[in-house]
Amino acid sequence: MNFLSVIGSGTMGRGIAYTAALSGFQVTLQDIQEESLLFAKNQIATEMRKSAERGYVDPAKVDEALSNIQYTTSLEEAVIHADIVIEAVYENIALKMDIFKQLDRLCQEHTILASNTSTLSPTEIASQTNRPDRCIAMHFFNPVHKMKLIEIIRGLDTSDETVQKTQEIGAKLGKETVEVNEFPGFVTSRMNCLIGNEAMNMLMEGVASAEDIDKAMKLGLNHPMGPLELADLVGLDTRLRNMEYLYQTLGEKYRPCPLLIKYVKAGRLGKKSGQGFYSYQTEHKPVKNK
């Protein structure tokens, strides 16, 4: 399975495309916005060349890897030859279901359809297709080229063959995989959302500053990144959508922190907007909680 397509050229989509191209896949990255594709192309090239300069990527492989990626706004062109399509749009069940419906019509019969979702139901997404046995969720982590894990979540009708092929693709991408039975939030998002939401509640209650909460988690519990830093990286709007879904499906303990809701309403979306729990305008520093 050498032909891999990615739908959506945002942070996760371009990270998956980057990793797949370096791993030897022929990749097509699709987005409906031409400017988004151009931005993704520049970001992928810049990141790959920086990684080569730092010794993380073989410089001899950079040009070949970059040539492995094609860019298009046409969904049909992107997926016609794909062995696997990884949908990487934002966490909206209606949008993902609509894309899977289109993919089912455009893709070859053998093509596996995977959703890079962190919380949503692969069974519900696959219900829009005539191939639920070949639909699955692959939950990648940000930044994709650095993070070693992929959660593989089987839906109600996902076949053992599809799981096995997806695990093989994960191995070719240089990742470790864990197989998870479908349940809201899977493994990592359930845990991560709880920790992050509690950190937000503590900040709101004045227990400690954002910087000290993150420092405590890093030095006291050996987390590589603090929960508030991580939320900024993921995007506070994305985190809020995840929390709202888990609150609806799993109950009261996942009620989103009011501070998170206020920040999203104010446009403080984290690193991508320049401000979240920290300011990214000039340097990484905590902002005053209001």
From TrEMBL:
Gene3D superfamilies: N-(1-d-carboxylethyl)-l-norvaline Dehydrogenase, domain 2, NAD(P)-binding Rossmann-like Domain. The record marks H139 as: Important for catalytic activity. NAD(+) binds at G8, S9, G10, T11, M12, G13, D31, E91, K96, S118, N142, K272. Residues 185-280 form the 3-hydroxyacyl-CoA dehydrogenase C-terminal domain. The keyword Repeat does not apply. Pathway: Lipid metabolism; butanoate metabolism. GO terms for biological process: fatty acid metabolic process. It holds the Pfam family 3HCDH. GO terms for molecular function: NAD+ binding; oxidoreductase activity, acting on the CH-OH group of donors, NAD or NADP as acceptor. Keywords: NAD, Oxidoreductase. Residues 5-182 form the 3-hydroxyacyl-CoA dehydrogenase NAD binding domain. The keyword NAD applies. Belongs to the 3-hydroxyacyl-CoA dehydrogenase family. This is 3-hydroxyacyl-CoA dehydrogenase.
